[in-house]
Amino acid sequence: MASKNAAKRTSAGSPGASAGPSEKKRRVENQALRDEVIHLRRLLEQSRADIDPNSRTLSTSSAASSRQFFDLLGEVVQPASLTRSASPSYHETVRATIPYTQSALEFELMCKHPNAYHILEPHGPSEPVANALLTFAESPFRARVRSTINQISQPPGLQQRNALCDVGLRDLQISYWTVVPVSNDTAASIISLYLENMHPVLGTFDADLFLGDLLNHKLRFCSPFLVNAVLYFGCQAYTFFDSTAAGLAWQLYDEANKLWEADKSTDSILHVAALVNMAYAGSSNGHDKDGMKYLKLARKMADRLGLEDGDPDAALDVSETNPVSDDIRSRAHIAWGYFIFTCGYAFYYDHPPTKSTSSLPIPGSPGFKLPSYMGSTINHICKFWLLGREIVILYAGASNSIAERVPLAAMESKYQQLLALAENFATKSPQGARVPHHTAILHVWYHTAIVTLMRPWSGKNVVLRTFDSTGSHPESISAASLRQLKRLIIEIRLYYSQATYNIQWHPGLLFIANAVLANSANDPEWQFYFMACLYGYGVLSTAYPDASLCFKGLLALAVESGKMPASRARFLAQELSRHGEQHDPTKSYSGIQMNLDVGELKERPGTVEELASRLESTVLAETDDAEVEDDALFDDLINFG
Question: In the chain, where are the structural domains located?
Answer without folding.
Answer: 2-98
